[in-house]
Each structure stands twice: as C-alpha cells, then as structure tokens.
Amino acid sequence: MSGCLKVTTLWLNHDWSTNLRFMATAAGRVNTESSKRRSKSLKKDVSYYEKKQEKLIREKLIQNTTESSKNHVYNRLFPWQSSQELAEHLRNTEVYNNDGLIALNKPYGVGMTKLDRSKATGPHTTVETLNMGITLPHVPAMSQVLPFLKEQYAADHLEIVKSTERWSSGLMLLSTSSKLTEKIQKCLRRCKAMSQPAMTYRAITVGLPSPASIATKVATKLEYVHNTGKVIKAQVSKWHFLRVWATYCYSPILGDHLYSGRVKTLMGRKIIVSHHNTYLEPQNLPDNLYSKLALPPRSSEMVPCHLHLSTVTLCQFSKDKSDLVLSAAPPEHFMWTCKQLGLQPSDEEEEHGHNESDKIQ
Predict the structure, then answer these.
(1) For residue 85, what are the contacts with CB-CB under 8 A and spacing of at least 6?
(2) Rounded CA separation 57/257 (Å)
C-alpha cells in the first residue's frame, strides 16, 4: 500500500517521467515483496507436507511391520546384528577368489558408509525414509565390515573397487593390492572404450519398458530441485541412472520410491511428470499386487527396490587377454517376488544370471 500512495502523490505533481519510473519501481517492489511472501508461504507449506509425509511413512512402516507376518521375506532383509555377522555372511556369498581379486554378492540396503540420520532434516530425511524401507539402525556399512573381511581373508590390504549402490543388490569387487585395483579399473575403462557393457543388471519393473531395448548414449546431468536438493535427471550407476532410465521408459523399478512418482496416469495413458512438480511419496502400485506379495493394502513402502547387479565383465583381464565374467545370483527376496508374480527365470538364466530385466505387466 505504501508504494501505491507514493505513486499517487507523484502523479498529482505531474512529474510524468519521474512518475512512470517510480511507478515501475514501486510496483516492482510491491510485487517482489509479495513474491517473497508467497515464496516463504510455499516453502512452509512444502516443508510441512514433507514432515507430515515422513511421519506418516514412518508410522506405516512400524504398523505394517507389526501387522505383517514376521516371517515375510521383506522383513528378513537385514538379519545381521553386528559388522562381524555381516562379514561372515558376505564371506559365504563369495563367487570368485583368485590372485587377490575377490567377488562377493552384496545384500540389498548395505551401503559403503553409515548414514547419519541425526543430521538429516526435511525432505532429505523423507528421501532416506523412502529409500530405507524397513532398514534397521543396527545395519552396518561396508566401512565397518571391511576390517572383519580383511581379517577373515588374512589380507594386509583390502579395498572395494566396484560395488552396486546401497539400495540394490549384487556384485562387489574387492582387491588386495593397489596394483590390482588399477588393473580392474583399466579393464572397466577398456569395456567402455570398446562399447562393450561391463555390467548387466536384472530388474523387476512395473510395466513393460518403452522402448523394450535400445542402444544409445545418454547425456548425464545433476539438476537442483526446489526444497529437495540435487536430484538426478540422468547419471551413471552410482547416481541411480538405471532407476531414472527405467522411469523415463514408463516402467519404474518395483520398490523404487524415489523416482517412480515421475510416472503418472492420465486418461488411461502413462505420462512423465517433471521432477520439479512431483512430491516424494511411496510408489503407487496396482491393487492386485499387494495380495500377490502377501502385503497389507497400500503398503508399497515396504517393498524393497528390485534391482540386482548380476554380471560384471572385466575386458581382457586374464593372462591370455580373455574376458573375466563374474556372476552373482539375485537375493532371496528378489527370487521370491519373481515366483509370486510368475516371473520365474529359466534354468539357464538361473545358472548364469544373464537374463533380461523381468517385468510386471
């Protein structure tokens, strides 16, 4: 209002040029102040929504864990009570151990470093909640497990060279020397230079990908999303590229609560919604899936992300310059879901772990 009064006063003095300039300045000031107020109000509304959403998700997770059978496979994802127990489990998943190269089958939900929940606030906590599902606080990270593995393998040096991300399962390569680490990384770079896929993933998706298969180069980019931070639009595997790619093929991965909200249904057709216009919320699944997966209705937040790194190829790794192909079978919960949904792979695929992505119609 003060801006309007000043403009009126100048108008009556017939100082036209000054009046017009001041009118524009005053109007701009009023609009800016109004915009700031709206922006603050919007931030408060979004922040309130995020906190409320997070609270509801946590309550549902606790409720569903209580209501669901304790023997449900999704409730047995994290049975380890200590770093030593997880180290022993990983040792039992060994798929390769020769000349200092060790390949293990990493479980779902185990990351490289421990998440610090005390410093997480607002939407970042919500993202973590959606990603974690029913992960328990005692689940150790690989940084805590590595000393126990080092002791079990009686190695002077042990480091992780390649691993799938926290919210997927699959192969993890460890090296007992820095020289071997350089050799493995060189083999992976050679695969890229030769346009030969170094990694093969298995996934269960909600819907058939469109296109079903493609060979192309994809630009990668990190983009800032208001009130959320940097969210991936497309990136390499450690930044969820496959999860983003599957979403933009109209077939988000089952259990991917972080990116599946970008696919909406309008008049019976699937459309992609801008990541700037989506809220973080549990994946929206068809009603009939809950009974097939033996879950309470509308409890999709309990479903883990069904993405598994099944094969890693090290190009010209062997002494005779042949490729070394390492394979790891999917975890129990992945195969159980396949069986429940009638997606059981063939015997050959089960043996080699080379099948294409399984899909939910």
Answers:
(1) 79
(2) 12
